[in-house]
Amino acid sequence: MYDTDNSHEFDFEARHIIEALRSGVPSRAVGACFSDARPKIMREITGQLNQLCENQKSGGKIISGKYGEGKTHLLNTIFNLASSENMVVSYVSLSKETPLDKLYLFYQKVIQNTCLPKRIQPGFMHEMEKISANSPVANEMLLYAAKQLETDKLYFLLRSYLNTEDSDEKFILQADLEGDFVANAALKKIYRRIFRQPAKYNTNFSKTKHCSDYFHFMAHLFQQLGYHGWVILVDETELIGRLGKKTRLNAYRNMANFIFPERCPEATFTWFALSASYSEDVIDGKHEFENLETVFPDQPEPIRTVLNLLNEAEQLQPLTRDEISEVLMKIQNFHAHAYNWSPNLSADTLARATQSGGYLLRTKIRAAIEFLDQLYQYGKAGRTIINELGEETFEEEVPAIEDL
Fold it and tell me: What angle do CA 215, 231, 51 make, to 5 degrees?
């Protein structure tokens, strides 16, 4: 917890956190500083990360919550925890550019937003560049790509990548691993040039059919590079509901590849966050079970099970009064350190100042920051006054900031 002694200079990290909270835009920095909120679910998440780290136990989890109740903040907290445990982390929000019904587009966005442990910027190609053609990692990955995937395209691609000295070819092959898939004919041409022999696929690769190979390949690569697992965080999952009927069902089918352990890439755990109203608005409102019987009558699984999991998704509960008080006191300490002052307000004063901010955590946080802003700038907010010693004085009723 920050010391609020006036002798400190402005703390720009604290100011960044206050400005992020003020804007309402979640960030990894905020997630790191408020990771002790929601202790029950955090114990569960920590246990799942430990299972991933120690036993490479793959799986997935769906978390639902009302707007403004902290779903994105929770994902950012998981990001920081996983990164601190030497895990690779990918964070994406579903959108038109990141649709879950098209796995090859989803893969591209996931890889573009993949961070190695304790790194701020995404990217992993600098690790690929360290792998030499005859190293143990290279031999293991070539064997895996040749024998363990649905197609062997990645065997020919990786072998070409490791052995080419042509910078243009290396760029094309790197881009493929990042989701800009090279055409089969172009890859075969590169392979023939390097090795003077044809590349004969056991199954002709199609990005619409075989993109899961890439997720499995990357998960195995991260293991070989010494990382403890791969955590994939998917926000705005409720945007699946905006897709057409068949594409929604395909998105559910793809979700199964990141939830059911037998389908997941190795040592990979995925968290999906979606709106609490999804079950009512989409699954019931758009008659998804009836749609499943119409569109895929002979292949209802795994879609049916995913729909049931969405219906049963654990919902984030509002923070308790004590948890809210703890969050508000942390905000006060960050505000004090960010602007080099000493508000020294009680938890009750801050809580009363946010009473009219509604029940959402997000609006309570904004109300508290606005309350502190006014005290800092003007020395008073409503009936609360900061005296010369930095101590609070207030009458019986402290109005909410909206009444100031």
Answer: 110
**Buried residues in 259-280 as b, exposed as e (16+ CB within 10 A):** bbeeebbbbbbbbbbbbbebbe
Q: Residues 139-148: contacts with CB within 8 Å, 24+ apart?
A: 140/224, 141/217, 141/220, 141/221, 141/224, 144/217, 144/220, 145/217, 148/216, 148/220
Cα distances from 283 to residues 278, 279, 399, in angstroms, run: 7, 5, 42
Q: What is the dihedral of CA 88, 91, 94, 97, to 10 degrees?
A: -80
Q: Which of 103, 101, 100 is nearest to 246 (CA)?
A: 101
3 state DSSP class of 54: helix
Q: What is the DSSP letter of 399?
A: -
pTM of the model: 0.84
Say how far apart CA 365 and CA 333 lie, in whole Å.
13
The length of the chain is 404
Q: Give the model confidence (pLDDT) of 123-139 as tens digits.
A: 999 999 999 999 999 99
> Token match 């002979």: residue?
298
Reported as a single tens digit per residue, the pLDDT across 29-64 is 666 556 566 778 889 999 999 999 888 889 999 999
Please state, in angstroms and rounded to a whole number, the distance separating the CA atoms of residues 195 and 354: 69
Q: Are 265 and 230 in contact (CB under 8 A)?
A: yes
